[in-house]
Amino acid sequence: MSTSTSQGVRLEAVSKTYGSETVVRDISLTIPQGEFFTLLGPSGSGKTTTLSMIAGFTLPDGGRIHIDGKDATRAPPRDRGLGMVFQNYAIFPHLDVFGNVAFPLNVRKVPKPEVAKRVAGALEMVKLTSFEKRFARELSGGQQQRVALARAIVGHPPVVLMDEPLGALDKNLRYHMQVEIKEISRRLGMTVIYVTHDQEEALTMSDRIAIMNRGSIAQIGPPREVYERPGSAFVARFLGEANLIAAKREGGALRGAGGAWFEVASDRPQAAGGQVFVRPEKVSILPEGGAPSANQIAGTVRHTAFLGNVVRYEVTLPDGQIVLCDATNASGTVLRQPGEAVRLGWQRADALLLEA
Amino acid sequence: MRNDRLTLSPSRRRFLMLGGAALAAPYVIAGPARAAGQVIVRTPGGAYDDIMRRHVYEPFTKETGITVMPVAATVSKLLAMFRANNVELDLIDTGDGPLVTLGRMGALAPIDYGSWKWSKPEDVGADYRHDTRVANFVYSTVLAYNKTRFPEGQHPRSWADFWDAGKFPGPRMLADMASGQPDLEIALLADGVPRDKIYPIDIDRAFKSLSRIRPQIRKFWDTGALSAQMLSDQEVVMGSIWNGRLQTLIDKGAPLGFDWNENMIQVQALSVFKGSPNQANAQKLIDFMMQPEVQAKYSMDLQYGPTNQKAFGHVPAEHLTRMPGGPNSKQIGFMRDVSWWESNRERVNRQWSRWILG
Amino acid sequence: MPLRLAAKWALIAPALALLLLLFITPIGWFIWESLTELGSLEEVWLETQAVLGSRAILGAILNTNGIALTVTVMVLVIGYPLSYALSRARGLAFSLVLLCIVIPYFTSVIVRTYAWMVILGRNGLINQILLGLGFVSEPVDLLYNRTGVIIGMTYVLLPYMVLTLYAAMKAVDQRLLQAAEGMGAKPMAVFAKVFLPLTLHGVTAGSLIVFILALGFFITPALMGGPGDIMMAMLIEREIELSHNWPVAALMTIVLLGITLALYALYGRVSDKAEGGFAR
Hints:
The complex is a heterotrimer.
Chain A: E1 9-18, E2 21-31, E3 36-40, H1 47-55, E4 62-67, E5 70-71, E6 82-85, H2 97-106, H3 112-125, H4 141-153, E7 159-163, H5 171-188, E8 191-196, H6 199-205, E9 208-213, E10 216-221, H7 223-228, H8 233-238, E11 243-250, E12 253-255, E13 261-262, E14 273-278, E15 284-285, E16 296-306, E17 310-316, E18 322-328, E19 341-345, E20 352-354
Parallel strand pairs in A: 3-8, 3-9, 6-7, 7-8
Antiparallel strand pairs in A: 1-2, 1-4, 4-5, 9-10, 11-12, 11-14, 12-13, 14-20, 15-19, 16-17, 16-19, 17-18
Helix pairs in contact in A: 2-3, 2-4, 3-4
Chain B: H1 10-24, E1 38-42, H2 47-64, E2 67-71, H3 75-83, E3 91-95, H4 96-104, E4 108-109, E5 134-146, H5 159-162, E6 172-175, H6 184-190, H7 203-213, E7 217-221, H8 224-232, E8 238-242, H9 243-251, E9 256-273, H10 279-289, H11 292-302, H12 317-320, H13 327-330, E10 334-335, H14 338-357
Parallel strand pairs in B: 1-2, 1-3, 6-7, 6-8, 9-10
Antiparallel strand pairs in B: 3-9, 4-9, 5-8, 5-9
Helix pairs in contact in B: 1-3, 2-11, 4-14, 6-7
Chain C: H1 2-36, H2 41-53, H3 55-88, H4 91-102, H5 109-120, H6 125-133, H7 146-170, H8 174-182, H9 187-215, H10 219-224, H11 232-241, H12 246-275
Helix pairs in contact in C: 1-12, 2-12, 3-7, 3-9, 7-9, 8-9, 9-12, 11-12
């Protein structure tokens, strides 16, 4: 269970089929030691099954899994030396906090004094010192979460798996725990494989994110990259609000409704058309009377939502498409009212052409 | 038995009334009763009912139009019914012991011998005729043995032999207190008491005698069914058993034999429950059941003995040898004294408990 | 929270009333009526002394508790693995095991007991097998002694334990077992450190039910026991059926009821303590 020489986790063409349904299809991944890696996807995308195969609770039908450089494809969970935080925490109701956190050490026959020392350390790290004698039912959700975390890290495992660990917490607590988990994982140099369906959480915490869809990895990369450079409409939509504006290639240029034309940072020159992707916060309302240029479109405000720091406009284009524009609520901002005609624009660098 | 226990406080009566009503409920026939009416009889149930239905109840109904309803009830239920003053049973067909007790409590109507038209009271043995009860058959406790262990001629012939484990080795059985009464008479016979000197039973002597044979006793049986089971399963090589139960096994081919010597004759009897709804019908059924031909038929099927002495005349000779109360059994056996038992059962019960657990 | 408490009582009240009417009232009346028959308190005291001082009753109390305890242990030892298998079985296997456990309930105790007598007798199935295989040269006495009583009662009472334990085992969160395994516990450790503690309340409840039911047995020991295997219920039955002595029967009933209630109180304290440690 030493961290220094560890080699992370590697999946080679891993598949899992239940009956006629393939839930994980040919996944290959390399997660280097110390990385905070997130499997993100909607429910049913295969992310939990993938995690379960890494943990050893589910055996893959094909492919190989290497943990710390060793082939662990068929090893039982107990021999994989992983730390785990379960959905709903899985705190043992018959053991107090100390007993819960000491559990992974006790079943591995760690000497008593050593157990006491390590448990104290883990509890300190999750700020639960002096809670040793409490039982799960005497703890709040956040405290139970901390116990689960302490129990996962108490053995200093090189790799910790976390399955939607914050799903049951309210938003505020969730943010605090995100920060804490991130902080602890960095301090201990652990590899964390984190499963969530919450894209904000994934973006906040991860070094890299694998977005999963229908059993496959749709895209993999650092948060900013997958957010700003989605490879598909699915990824673009899953990671937040996205404008996807229909475009056709006419005479080498991408043309949209109402005479607009687009220039993008990443084109697909072979394609006859597609969808121009641009995030709402990259779209701005242009002042009156500028010269027409690329990446400008005219439309009518359909709805104005004042969100505090941001004002969100829904703008209808001449062909009926709707484009979202998030304008910063800077000083002196004048709110546009529904029915007003506006011109929207964005930078070439913020736009991509995606498959239709 | 202490008499004060039989006088009831009013509240006790009310309480028992509830119980009595509940007990009687199943016997009350819904809908209009037939013109000739009915008679409700407590019986031992099972195969007994089938035989009685065939030879007594159905011919009786044919003759009189009166329907006969056999029902099961334990003695304590009968007592509770009487105490609750809620008697729904007309006729009780049971061992004469409980009838003695019920009679002493004043629960029984006199047998109306004067009204008999089918049977003659004087044909019924004097031992079997009483004011409030009349015996309908007799049965015997006999010494049965396994023929494969003890071939004919080398078998135990007396209760003294039964007690002689050196000469006749093997596990045995005797009656348990729970069967109603343990075999104290047999214990005295084994100890050398002559047949006519058994009563009043010297309880201490009887238990001392029982103690001598106890190591050989595999089990004390509490029901006729269990005693038959133990003999046919060869769990025991000999034991006391009611002759009817035994005869059934022998007729099925079990390698069992018995000796009439020192057989203990016991009596099943009929009584009319005082205050029951169908008094006259109950008296009629008794009269009908006491006829020689009727008694001969059901006695043969039951493997027991008739109480109407004329009934023996209707029994084939080869069957007479197996009938208790007949010439084979009466001279060499004895009648169990039911009055002694009704007066002493509680005392014996206490002593039995101490002895069996000691 | 008085409102929630009131609601709780409102829910329990009908069942409580029914119990009171059907169970407590008759027993109360029986005891009251029987003892008032004795006439005076002095008489009651004298009878009580006689009953409690009787060697027969003390012997029966010892027998009753000894048999009930042995049967409880046997039922637990057999029932725990059986319940575990049942909690794990699915589909046909589950139905079959459950059927085997429950079907005997459709026949009377007497029929089942006679069936055992056929199997356990000196010339019964088991002895024939043992003799046939040469394990023994003489038939083994499995019937009409304490062994017979234990076997018979264990069989009759097994379903109570199995169904209680089954419920407790089904309630165990499977994710906890998986979690333990993931944390490095070997199967034995998963069982000893997680599964067993989580089903312990089922063990206590099942044992208590079995023990209390065993205290009141009388058909099985009467049929399958030896001369000395007398239990309390058998004595009570004889007092009522043979001696028609209600007062003594009532006093014996009080003794038996007292033992049962004392045990139940003990269970209440133990389980309260255990409850303190559970999340549910």
